Amino acid sequence: MPLRNGEHGYGLVTKTLHWATVLAVVAQFVVGYTVEADHSGHGHGRGRGRGGASGHGRGRGGEDDGLGVFDGPLDLLDLHVLLGLSIFALVLLRVLWRSTTPLPPWDERLTPRDQRIVHAAEVALLATLVVVPLTGLALVLGDDDLLPVHVAAHIAFFVALAAHLGMVLGRRLVRRML
User: Fold this and answer.
1) Which helix (H) or strand (E) holds 42?
2) N or C, which terminus of the chain has less Cβ within 10 Å?
3) Which residue ranges does the record assign to the Cytochrome b561 bacterial/Ni-hydrogenase domain (predicted)?
């Protein structure tokens, strides 16, 4: 399999970056929802912690000065942050790689409207995979004002993901079945 994209389709590097991103996002949601379900006070990942002092967005009381992101054994919230930073880095690598290799030709089954949907979904997915980690990091560091942006970006991600999966599955599976 060629490394670069071309007439043959997507190359090995593009496919590897795509599936690494997918795996990181799946892991991120598993860890994120586990952190959210943890009612111990050590992992809500946003807002004020238990106790009187600010939790600096880490769901903790006043025991943390908010300056060190990782200040002890790796817990679920730390893993959540690391996965978010990894996703951000993968997106940057994808955009950089995309600027150095041509796209393969469009699938001939895609109409011009379908092509616009695929392109818009791709742009939205990449944008949300930048916004979500950055706002998440801001939340961890104590800027709770960005919570609505973080949540809205999650919603936008799921809408874009539904459009992406709808186009992929609709073209590959549904047409074969009808």
Assistant:
1) none
2) C
3) 10-175
Residue keyed to tokens 């912690």: 49
Within 10 angstroms of residue 33's Cβ, the number of other Cβ atoms is: 11
Provide the sign of the torsion angle of the four alpha carbons 129, 133, 134, 135, taken in this order: positive
Do residues 164 and 126 lie in contact, with contact meaning Cβ atoms separated by under 8 Å?
no
In angstroms, the CA 58 to CA 47 distance is 7
Per-residue pLDDT tens digits for 127-149: 999 999 999 999 999 889 999 99
pTM above 0.85, yes or no: no
Read off the pLDDT band of 79 (50, 70, 90).
Answer: very high
Domain boundaries, the chain: 12-177
b/e 58-75 (16+ beta carbons within 10 angstroms → b): bbbbeebeeeeeeeeeee
Q: Which residue has the tokens 């006043």?
A: 62
Sign of the dihedral defined by the CA atoms of residues 156, 159, 161, 163, in that order:
negative
Tell me how far CA of residue 65 lies from CA of 73, 76, 131, in angstroms: 16, 19, 25
pLDDT in tens, 100-130: 999 999 988 889 999 999 999 999 999 999 9
